[in-house]
Amino acid sequence: MKLRKESLPMITRRDLVVAAVAVCATIAVVALADSAITPVMKSSVFEWDKLKVESKPSGARRSVFDSRTATLDQLECHVTTLNPGQSPHPGHRHPEEELVILKEGTLESVQNGVTNVVGPGGVIFEASNEPHSLRNTGQTPATYYVIKFVPHGLSTNRTPVVSMSDH
Predict the structure, then answer these.
(1) Mean of pLDDT over the chain
(2) Backbone dihedral angles phi then psi of residue 26, each to the nearest 5 degrees
């Protein structure tokens, strides 16, 4: 009895070229669609009086902008006003970096278990993936700007911190 050799279909060079073109076209369409949905922010001015005030249990928040830029997937800025004794949210960590600029009032900043008191004009840098929290320890409202930087390709997931003293 003779065994018959079955012929398998061959992948030709033409098949590989067609597949490569299809993959490249798909990537280009996805990139174009993404840039059309979220345009890159150009040079801009944002007037304080035109910012919408959103009341929060701890005070208020004003969104300034949240957009892609030429060098970042996301550049976000908001202004928070915290009432005395309040925190905007529990301690946490996240991959993106933040810059906090205190306009008025007093904040307690806890970073990696170290507590600092910050006054008007103070600047706080929140590094990537380091636990941090803020609280108004003064007798008057504290108002500060938050600027968040998300570089291209960074996955942004916030992780709660159980106890700031553990870190």
Answers:
(1) 86
(2) -65, -45
8 Å CB contact between 37 and 29: no
d(CA 70, CA 156): 19
Instruction: Say how far apart CA 150 and CA 152 lie, in whole Å.
Output: 7
How far apart are alpha carbons 48 and 53 in whole angstroms?
A: 10
Distance CA 66, CA 28 (A): 24
Per-residue pLDDT reduced to its tens digit, 118-127: 999 999 999 9
Question: How many CB atoms lie under 10 A from the CB of residue 69?
Answer: 14
Spatial neighbors of 66 by CB under 8 A, at least 6 apart, are 74, 75, 76, 77
Cβ pair 79, 64 in contact under 8 A = yes
What is the 8-class DSSP label of residue 88? S
Question: What CA–CA distances, in Å, run from 137 to 12, 31, 53, 114, 132?
Answer: 71, 46, 23, 15, 16
pLDDT in tens, 84-93: 999 999 999 9
Which among 58, 49, 113 has a CA at the least distance from the CA of 86? Answer: 58
